[in-house]
Amino acid sequence: SVAALEIGSYSKVVGWLDNDKAGHAAYKKLRGKLALYETEVRRVTSIDDPKYLNSNEITEKIKEIQWTTSN
């Protein structure tokens, strides 16, 4: 898809999805669509909906991600 092609141009992608059945399915679908690209995909989950977090809390959650590549 065009969206996967655009997202696949990034070396790292973060998906912030709900920690429920639908969120797990969406993450699996995202990883599947990006599997053809050299894109590392990680997931962020939180108890609180991101719209209730301030920018510092969001930044900290993203910084906690463990990447396998350094770029």
Features:
71 residues; two-stranded parallel ribbon; 41% helix
What can be said about this structure in brief?
By secondary structure, the chain is an alpha+beta fold. The protein has helices spanning 2-7, 21-34, 55-63, and strands at residues 12-16, 40-44.
Q: Can you walk through the features of this model?
A:
Helix content is 41%, strand content 14%. It is built from three helices and two strands. It has a two-stranded parallel ribbon.
Secondary-structure map:
Layout: H1 2-7, E1 12-16, H2 21-34, E2 40-44, H3 55-63
Parallel strand pairs: 1-2
Q: So what's the overall shape?
A: globular
Query: What string, H for helix and E for strand, traces the elements in order?
Result: HEHEH
Which structural class fits the helix and strand makeup? alpha+beta
Number of helices: 3
Percent in strands? 5-15%
Rg value: 13 Å
Low-confidence stretches: none
Mean pLDDT: 87
* First-last Cα distance: 25 Å
Q: What is the percent of helical residues?
A: 40-55%
Task: For the largest sheet, list the strands in their spatial order.
Answer: 1-2
Beta-strand segment tally: 2
What composes the largest sheet? 2 strands, parallel
